[in-house]
Amino acid sequence: KVSSQIRANTVFPVPPDLRGNPKAEFALTVLPDGSIGSLRLTRSSGLPAWDQAAERAIRRSDPLPRPPPGTPREIAIAHGPRDD
After folding, report:
1. Contact at 8 Å (CB) between 21 and 83?
2. Buried b vs exposed e over 22-48: b needs ≥16 C-beta within 10 Å?
C-alpha cells in the first residue's frame, strides 16, 4: 500500500537516456496514525532531481496507511524512477 501511494504521488519525467533505475533511499519515522514524523535521505540516487522528486512524493503521501500494531516506527524506503 505504501509503495503504490508513493508511486501515485511521484512526478518526474524520466529522461530517455537514463540508464538503469537509480534509487534514492530514505529513512522515515511513521507515527501510529500514519503521519510522517521525520524523513531523511540516507543514500542519494546520484540524480539530485530524482532525489528531490522522490522526497516530494513521500511528503505528498502523508499520512501513510496506518501501520499495524507492533510495526517498527522507523522504516526504510528505496524509490527509483522506474519502480512499478
Report:
1. yes
2. ebbbbebebeeeeeeeeeeeeeebebe
Q: Supply 57's cell numbers.
A: 512524493
Residue 58 has what pLDDT? 97
Q: Which three cell numbers stand for residue 32?
A: 501510529
The structure's pTM equals: 0.91
Take residue 18 and report the three cell numbers written for it.
Answer: 537514463
Contacts of 43 (CB under 8 A, 6+ apart): 23, 24, 25
Give the distance, in angstroms, between the CA of residue 14 and the centroid of all CA atoms in the same chain.
16
Residue-wise pLDDT tens digits, 24-74: 999 999 999 999 999 999 999 999 999 999 999 999 999 999 988 888 999
For residue 68, the 8-state DSSP code is: P
